[in-house]
Specification:
CATH class of the largest domain: Alpha Beta
Strand order of the largest sheet: 6-5-4-7-8-9
Largest sheet: 6 strands, parallel
CATH topology of the largest domain: Rossmann fold
Structural class: alpha/beta
Number of domains: 4
Number of strands: 16
Length: 665
């Protein structure tokens, strides 16, 4: 019996997407939801991780309790599931870390003066990061500091010996645990290579040992490649929120959803993950020469909009609007208003090359790592970045007269975005005392129940954005401060949850009071998926505050904090790598949609239960976002009880003697 086709309402929660989905259906244009339906029923062996195809004797489908309980080589379900899980971690780590390597290379070339157009914008952050790599700052020129830092950072990708410097940011208790377990990454590339080697046929056949390598690999992502990418991008392009120049800037205000596309302007979508390209597109689009050319072609100007994680990168630093998240990439083209979609790497659907056949849109690939047949390839030259960007924009402008009519939804929402960990510190503590002290204090006093990181992708198996938004609304209603990255952050922005005036109406009384006093929404946009490292740093800072002042202690390790994480609509291997580095950093992490180890009760129990005894954090799986929220709240309450702060406390007004006591400590 054929499965009933889902309604438009079941495909997406937002009106803009629904409108364009209906338009595509009327025009006979195939979208991601159609292809998802065409793939039903999906293979359960693949979904639950017990299909092994790492050699040509297979593929083998392992069915415990039957004659097929082992593969041809003898591998059991635990080995097969662990191998597949770690291979996902390796692929996700490779994606993030290759991004980090590219940023590090451009950073070094910028410091050497070899790539015109790029510059070091955040000198203060450069000077803060340099000592972590034993780079002397005092009395040296910015160029000298940056060159030495760049050279040392690049070595971490394939150094022969030594650990990753960013790991020093973790609490001492956490580092001691990693060392005891043998989980500390040696370098970034080695852990990915070794993960692939161990999961080759006939190598590692102990699921616990295989998963330990998965931990090393994931930590090389979160505390290595991803953190390198985030920190160096901030130095190159500016730290979101601009924390050392608050008098002139604040976190960016922007609009999000397909309604940001403009009927009277040349619309250019930048889509992918690496900001090296999109940063230059943003700069070049404001060039008077480009704007004048657009007017000559009949447009009133140029409108650049972001898609997916590239959107998060440029909105944080330029206030450029967001057209949508992962599942909306085809929909942007179906509006008929996009002159050019420029893509680099990651999360770019090959189907775009078919959708553009029905429209005037030019699909342009720019990276040699990510080409699409039938798309135009225009290599982005970092050594002549600004002119490369102008050339792309020029081609888009020249395409404007080819429009055949547009169907742009009216829907878009205001949002406040760009909360780097530095900016959160500033918002909490002010210019002269940036600190996480107020956050810890409000958690201890019970106005803020805890903190949740809600991150990840979209998945056509569930209603677009619904799990993200439902989960977030449940959390903030229960006084949980939410920090977001990636497509999940865009989902919240489209739902108005990053607009303080609107979002605070949905927050619990304690959280609302704090956010109103500080001037932030209850849902904080922290960047792209690679910027999950900002959340790791923030968690480490929360621990550090308590070590500075015992009255503000929330424990001595990340695992003791009243925090939790979730990826309710995940789909990519990067998400598994992110989840693993959060779990093994001590964070309880819940995934929705499906989970790739369910066919092995042993491995799933190890990840979902025994991991907590080993790492202090553990995995969980729950497709229902309301149940997921309750699981996270229960975990936060459990941590509050362990800390002895399960009951909220009344606010205490300090008299002079009490203040003197604070100063003495």
């Amino acid at each position: 019996m054929a499965k009933k086709e889902r309604t438009t309402q079941e495909k997406s929660r937002d009106n803009a997407s629904r409108q364009v989905i209906d338009a595509a259906k009327e025009a006979g244009i195939e979208l991601v939801w159609d292809r998802y339906e065409n793939q039903q029923p999906q293979c359960k062996f693949g979904s639950e991780g017990n299909c092994c195809r790492v050699c040509a004797m297979g593929p083998c489908r392992i069915i415990p309790g039957t004659k097929r309980d082992r593969g041809i080589c003898g591998a059991d379900v635990d080995t097969v599931v662990a191998r597949n899980f770690v291979r996902m971690i390796a692929a996700g780590t490779a994606a993030h870390s290759d991004h980090g390597r590219g940023v590090a290379q451009i950073f070094l070339e910028t410091a050497r003066g070899e790539v015109p157009g790029y510059e070091i914008k955040d000198v203060e952050k450069l000077k803060e990061l340099a000592p972590m790599y034993d780079v002397e700052v005092e009395g040296r020129e910015t160029k000298e500091i940056a060159i030495e830092l760049g050279e040392k950072v690049i070595k971490e990708f394939n150094q022969a010996e030594g650990g990753l410097k960013m790991l020093e940011r973790a609490p001492e208790k956490r580092k001691d645990l990693w060392k005891k377990l043998g989980a500390i990454p040696r370098n970034i590339d080695r852990e990915v290579v070794e993960a692939m080697h161990r999961t080759h046929i006939g190598v590692d056949q102990d699921y616990e040992n295989i998963l330990l390598q998965g931990t090393r690999t994931a930590l090389a992502d979160g505390w290595g490649g991803s953190m390198i990418a985030t920190e160096l991008q901030d130095i190159l392009f500016g730290t979101p929120g601009d924390p050392w120049r608050y008098a002139t800037r604040e976190a960016n205000r922007l609009k999000a959803n397909l309604g940001v596309l403009k009927e009277d302007k040349v619309n250019i979508i930048v889509h992918g993950h690496e900001p090296l390209l999109s940063e230059m597109i943003a700069v070049a689009s404001r060039d008077p020469e480009m704007i004048e050319l657009a007017k000559e072609m009949g447009a009133s100007g140029i409108n650049v909009a972001g898609m997916c994680c590239t959107a998060n990168e440029i909105l944080m630093r330029h206030g450029i609007p967001v057209a949508g998240n992962f599942l909306q990439q085809e929909l942007a083209i179906v509006t008929g208003s996009v002159e050019m979609m420029i893509v680099d790497v990651q999360c770019v659907m090959q189907a775009l090359s078919r959708v553009v056949h029905d429209f005037h849109t030019k699909l342009v690939t720019t990276s040699e790592k990510a080409m699409i047949r039938e798309a135009t390839h225009m290599p982005f030259d970092e050594e002549d970045a600004l002119n490369s960007a102008k050339n792309l924009i020029r081609k888009a402008i020249e395409n404007y007269p080819q429009r055949k009519g547009v169907n742009i939804p009216d829907d878009s929402e205001d949002a406040v975005a760009g909360f780097s960990h530095e900016y959160i510190k500033y918002m909490l503590g002010g210019s002269f005392r940036s600190s996480y002290w107020p956050l810890n204090s409000n958690i201890i006093d019970g106005r803020i129940r805890g903190v949740a990181g809600v991150v990840g992708c979209n998945n056509p198996a569930v209603t677009l954005d619904d799990a993200h938004v439902t989960l977030i609304e449940e959390l903030i209603a229960n006084d949980v401060l939410v920090v977001q990255t990636g497509c999940s952050a865009i989902a919240a922005a489209k739902a108005g949850l990053m607009e303080p005036e609107k979002a605070l109406k949905k927050a619990g009384p304690g959280l609302r009071a704090v956010c109103e006093a500080v001037g932030i929404p209850p849902v904080l946009h922290a960047g792209a998926c690679v910027d999950n490292s900002r959340i790791l740093i923030a968690l480490a800072e929360m621990v550090a505050v308590g070590q500075e002042n015992s009255r503000l202690s929330l424990g001595n390790d990340i695992s003791e904090l009243p925090v939790a994480g979730a990826a309710p609509e995940w789909m990519s291997e990067k998400a598994i790598a992110i989840g693993q580095y959060f779990v093994t950093s001590g964070v309880y992490t819940v995934f929705g949609v499906k989970f790739p180890t369910l066919s092995s009760e042993t491995v799933t129990d190890y990840l979902f239960n025994k991991y907590e005894d080993i790492y202090g954090g553990k995995w969980a799986f729950e497709p229902d976002p309301k149940k997921m929220a309750q699981m996270m709240i229960d975990h936060i309450d459990k941590k509050r009880k362990a800390l002895g702060i399960e009951k909220s406390r009344e606010r205490v007004l300090f008299d002079m003697d009490m203040r003197r006591g604070l100063e003495a400590e």
